[in-house]
Amino acid sequence: MEEKLEQVSLSSLFQEFHISENDETAHLLQSWERYVEEVEEIIGYKFKNPNLLYQAFTHSSIQENCCESYERLEYVGDSVLNLLIAKEHYFLHPDLPPGKLTRLRAANVDTEKLARVAVKYDFHKYLRHKKPLLKGQVEEFRDATLEYPLHSTGLIDPPKVLADIVESLIGAVYIDCNFSMDTTWQVTEGLLQPLITPANLETHPVTKFYEVCQKNGWRVELVDKWEETGEIDVFVDGKFVGKGKFSGKKLIALNRAAHNAYCQIVKNFSVEATCDNSACNETQN
Questions:
Q1: Which class for 105: exposed (0-12), middle (13-18), buried (19 or more C-beta within 10 A)?
Q2: Do 153 and 262 contact (CB within 8 A), yes or no?
Q3: Where does the chain have alpha helices with state H?
Q4: Is residue 142 helix, strand or coil?
Q5: Among 267, 263, 223, residue whose Cα is nearest residue 245
Q6: DSSP letters along 68-90, please?
């Protein structure tokens, strides 16, 4: 694999643009040399070609002739990250079967997990973009994670762009270090801490809910009101047991409905919980 990003200095990149001093993008360009040092300090890696880092934090909403968006680096980073995590788990958990290894890997590389990494290190402040709603989305996501210190298992909606820049950063490191998996893992392992382990891996709320209903022979009915109210109601054997609401995405509403119904069943039907019952909260926004 060869990266054909032209080796040019950052100062020459700046000269390619004619943007007003009040433009946020211009401010980012002028500050980029400082940002490079900050990111390198965060990840513990110094780039031979800082232009790769520049590309890794360039969103497709920015149209430039001299620099591509992060999408190609994201593609590489996604593949490298999955392989690195698979390798780590294969040797770290020799007794785990493939199914559990797959679930464990997915939890450590999914959109929410990577978005948490971006928020933890404020990577979004280095992103060059024209997405006026991003700041509000980041703050909303940051606030939502406070209820779930490790992972919400599908109960909150992370901005995908946050996960994208983590993957593009990993891709940039991989290419810059001449495709060294060991060097890339050193950077990646530090970013992903704390890793989700078999001991704290949560079962998905929909799976957990249907398993307890199947075990007890209960009939499940979902009433889909999402188009009208953003809600999904859950009935078990004709009795209302919970609901989920999230107007932004139907899948999140479904996950919340299953989660809420499961917690109500545990509370009111003397069913033994399969997880820490303290997670049974009312996330209905």
A1: buried
A2: no
A3: 10-14, 24-30, 32-43, 50-56, 71-92, 98-109, 111-120, 134-145, 160-176, 181-192, 205-216, 226-229, 250-268
A4: helix
A5: 223
A6: --THHHHHHHHHHHHHHHHHHHH
CA dist list (Å): 207 to 4, 79, 255, 264, 266: 45, 27, 10, 16, 15
Give pLDDT tens digits for 143-202: 999 999 999 999 999 999 999 999 999 999 999 999 999 999 999 999 999 999 999 999
Gyration radius (Cα) of the chain, Å: 22
pLDDT of residue 96: 97
Is it the case that residue 5 has pLDDT exceeding 60? no
Torsion of CA 116, 119, 121, 126, to 10 degrees: 130
Mean residue pLDDT across the chain: 87
In the predicted model, is pLDDT for residue 284 greater than 80? no
DSSP designation for 124: G
Q: Show Cβ contacts of residue 132 under 8 Å, excluding neighbours closer than 6 positions.
A: none
pTM: 0.85
pLDDT band at 16 (very low <50, low <70, confident <90, very high): very low
Which tokens sit at 263?
A: 């917690």
Which tokens is 21 given? Answer: 């001093």
Distance in angstroms (rounded) separating the CA atoms of residues 9 and 50: 8
φ/ψ of residue 3, rounded to 5: -100, 120
In 3D space, the residue among 211, 226, 191 whose CA is nearest the CA of residue 258 turns out to be 211
